[in-house]
């Protein structure tokens, strides 16, 4: 007999992974210390024009320190401050901490056969520091970076050789840390290459980023690499959980016009579901042929083997990690439409929503919809591994940051997650983005702040690096302690 629990869910389940998220290339700094090689992110200048620069025809991954600032070179110097930072995370009550391992800290050029032991020792210390406070590490293997040499010499992920290089990297770190780290993700926001393949695939115009054939080939190579990582992880320990990670932007058609309804359907199929379909279901979706036709890709020019497809089918991921910051509106009829910004993807302004300082539309209900759409499609555990508000924080005369706007944003999204739990969604955890201020991926700015912890550093890299607890720090502390009841 099937028994249904009619009681409403009023708090998050025991074992729910409360925490925060960062990325190595945005906070570690120490870009050339202890044997680390340069990454593609080290070649991206700071400032609002960084994407425009990286998308220009003349950009070829050159680093010109006379012309540009490179804030990622310093980050917030987490490389030297990590013990202080983890202690602050523990003070908030973190149950987990999502971070990434800098590929070029382990394999400086990416194509070596032996890893850099100094880099491995750094992550030994970082992981041990987390475990000292009973904080579960959640590691992203590749988060918007790769050794710069792999982009310059090999042309990025369109080159099948990167499968072998990634496999070597993944196996080294999985073998080294699997006895202490139970949760992993293979690629960060893998689907973001639809709009910007620079960070996720290492492709720029000079190496073919404007030809969708290269983007699709790069995805296929990443799907194979991801499957190989899942295979190796499960061979090490069947209890290891290794997931995919996608960018998710709930999308609404602007009106009931069938043209906009169809366009929105296709956007969801392509942006929100395509990469997850392959990594979760283990096969390319039925929409793939249509996608290739619309982007003028000749399937005969793709390098896809039967062995690749068997590997992808045999080793799907265990869970789905995803980022959610904002929703968007689809409009192909262009009736008095005003465009707005977003997390690598924008859209049409939604008159029912407010926007952040950077123009991103704030939509907590969109997160509940996203959770229902993903769980309804895949029936796999979900993990909200990025969510947060990029805002300009003002430091008061007495060194306080009163960020009620951030608290309100996060409060509404936590309520949305609780709603999804009542809808029957299997939700593993929540790691808001930039739990400590770090360099923005989209703009290279420090002034676009997400953290519960303020870091005294400006967009020019000047400041004391002092860590200061914001009001949201104490609020999130109560949220975790109460299992989401006190929000």
From TrEMBL:
The active site is at residue 386. It comes from Liquorilactobacillus vini DSM 20605. Belongs to the glycosyl hydrolase 1 family. Keywords: Glycosidase, Hydrolase. One of its GO terms (cellular component) is cytosol. GO terms for molecular function: beta-glucosidase activity. Gene3D superfamilies: Glycosidases. GO terms for biological process: carbohydrate catabolic process. It holds the Pfam family Glyco_hydro_1. This is 6-phospho-beta-glucosidase. InterPro entries: GH, GH_1_N_CS, Glyco_hydro_1, Glyco_hydro_1_AS.
């Amino acid at each position: 007999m099937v028994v249904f629990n009619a009681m409403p869910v009023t708090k998050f389940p025991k074992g729910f992974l409360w925490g925060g998220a960062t990325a190595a290339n945005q906070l570690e700094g120490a870009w050339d210390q202890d044997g680390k090689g340069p990454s593609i992110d080290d070649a991206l200048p700071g400032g609002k024009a960084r994407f425009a620069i990286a998308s220009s025809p003349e950009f070829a991954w050159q680093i010109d320190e006379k012309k540009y600032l490179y804030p990622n070179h310093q980050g917030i110097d987490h490389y030297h401050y990590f013990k202080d930072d983890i202690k602050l995370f523990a003070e908030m009550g973190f149950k987990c901490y999502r971070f990434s391992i800098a590929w070029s800290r382990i394999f400086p050029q990416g194509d070596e056969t032996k890893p850099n032991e100094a880099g491995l020792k750094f992550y030994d210390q970082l992981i041990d520091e987390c475990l000292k406070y009973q904080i579960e590490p959640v590691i992203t293997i590749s988060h918007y970076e790769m050794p710069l040499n792999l982009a310059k010499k090999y042309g990025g992920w369109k080159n099948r050789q990167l499968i072998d290089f990634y496999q070597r990297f993944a196996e080294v770190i999985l073998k080294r840390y699997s006895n202490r780290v139970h949760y992993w993700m293979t690629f960060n926001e893998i689907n973001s290459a639809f709009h910007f393949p620079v960070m996720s695939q290492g492709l720029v115009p000079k190496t073919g980023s404007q030809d969708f054939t290269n983007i699709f080939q790069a995805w296929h190579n990443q799907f194979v690499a991801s499957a190989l990582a899942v295979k190796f992880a499960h061979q090490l320990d069947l209890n290891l959980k290794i997931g995919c990670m996608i960018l998710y932007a709930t999308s609404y058609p602007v009106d009931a016009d069938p043209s906009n309804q169809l366009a929105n359907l296709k956007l969801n199929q392509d942006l929100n579901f395509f990469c997850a379909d392959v990594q979760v279901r283990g096969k390319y979706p039925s929409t793939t042929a249509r996608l290739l036709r619309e982007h003028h890709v000749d399937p005969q020019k793709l390098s896809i083997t039967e062995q690749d497809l068997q590997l992808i089918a045999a080793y799907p991921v265990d869970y789905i990690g995803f980022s959610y910051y904002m929703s968007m509106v689809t409009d192909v009829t262009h009736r008095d439409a005003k465009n707005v910004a977003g997390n690598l993807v924008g859209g049409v302004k939604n008159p029912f929503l407010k926007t952040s300082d950077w123009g991103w539309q704030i939509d907590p209900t969109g997160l509940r919809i996203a959770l229902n759409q993903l769980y309804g499609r895949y029936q796999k555990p979900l993990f909200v591994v990025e969510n947060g508000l990029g805002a300009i924080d003002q430091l008061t005369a007495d060194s306080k940051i009163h960020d009620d706007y951030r608290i309100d944003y996060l409060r509404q999204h936590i309520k949305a997650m609780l709603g999804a739990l009542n809808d029957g969604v299997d939700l593993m955890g929540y790691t808001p983005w930039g739990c400590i201020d770090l360099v923005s991926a989209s703009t290279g700015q420090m002034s676009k702040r997400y953290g519960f912890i303020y870091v005294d550093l400006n967009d020019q890299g000047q400041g004391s690096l002092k860590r200061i607890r914001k009001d949201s720090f104490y609020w999130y502390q109560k949220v975790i302690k109460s299992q989401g009841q006190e929000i």
